[in-house]
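Tokens as discussed.
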């Protein structure tokens, strides 16, 4: 996992590199969440594998993190609205909404139980 300032990493558009958003500060709780988030994200199927949609959905949360976590279900609905009209073949076998909420709960629980204890402030 990498963290880059949005002005310095603007051409590094991939979800392996989290781009800081103004005000250019992440608390230790947010960093702990991201550390556990990335670990779970990379353990999910991707590409054209079955059940890839959960990984795509979680990756979508990173585009507006931490704002996307204020109302994660709004991000969920936005993902559905943006991906279904393009007739992408859905390969998800389970209940995407339930699994989405379940994995977010697991990530938040892990972040509280095993905090990283690092803050990042590009303003300094």
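Sequence:
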């Amino acid at each position: 996992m990498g963290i880059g300032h949005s002005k310095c990493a603007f051409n590094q558009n991939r979800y392996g590199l989290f781009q800081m958003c103004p005000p250019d500060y992440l608390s230790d709780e947010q960093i702990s969440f991201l550390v556990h988030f990335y670990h779970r994200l990379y353990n999910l199927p991707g590409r054209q594998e079955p059940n890839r949609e959960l990984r795509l959905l979680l990756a979508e949360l990173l585009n507006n993190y931490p704002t996307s976590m204020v109302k994660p279900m709004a991000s969920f609905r936005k993902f559905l609205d943006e991906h279904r009209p393009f007739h992408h073949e859905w390969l998800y076998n389970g209940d995407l909404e339930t699994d989405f909420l379940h994995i977010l709960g697991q990530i938040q629980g892990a972040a509280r139980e095993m905090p990283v204890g690092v803050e990042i402030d590009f303003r300094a």
